[in-house]
Amino acid sequence: MIVTRLDRGQVLASAEELASLLTDTVESGASVGFLAPMDGAPALAWWRERAAAVAVGELAVWVARDGDRIVGTVSLAFPGKPNSRHRAEVVKLMVHPAARGRGLGRTLLTAAEEAAAAAGITLLHLDTETGSPAERLYRSAGWIRAGVIPDYAASPAGVLCATTIYYKRLAVG
Description:
This protein has 173 residues and is an alpha+beta fold. Helix content is 34%, strand content 34%. Helix 1 packs antiparallel against helix 2. The longest helix is centred in the first third of the chain and has 20 residues.
């Protein structure tokens, strides 16, 4: 597996493949902000919209490839306010269902953490569906549970679920 950071043009060039990954992720039941059944057109539009945020530095996107195929992605969202430039949010960590169980989620998370630290970010945060398999990953990677918000978001099936907020302090330098 090779993990690379994408620029604006690469996000646009990979949008169809990223949309397919998003669709497969949602259809497998992962809560990443979309409802099932997931059509390819909204997923494609969503990824194309991300390219503008990448271009202005509000978002960083990494992909993991198995050969020529994208099998995972993770992003960092950077706040624009002056009092929050020390932190970033980990968003849309997705691993294709067929590629799960091989440590790819950990590899993508580590890539994002290392890039954040290199950029001077000292605090990361994220949210994930309470009770999801992702929670094991975050806890085992040293993330700290901050709390749970009930009925935060609908699962892909449309059922309201709680979300757990996690954070991680990073050493810079």
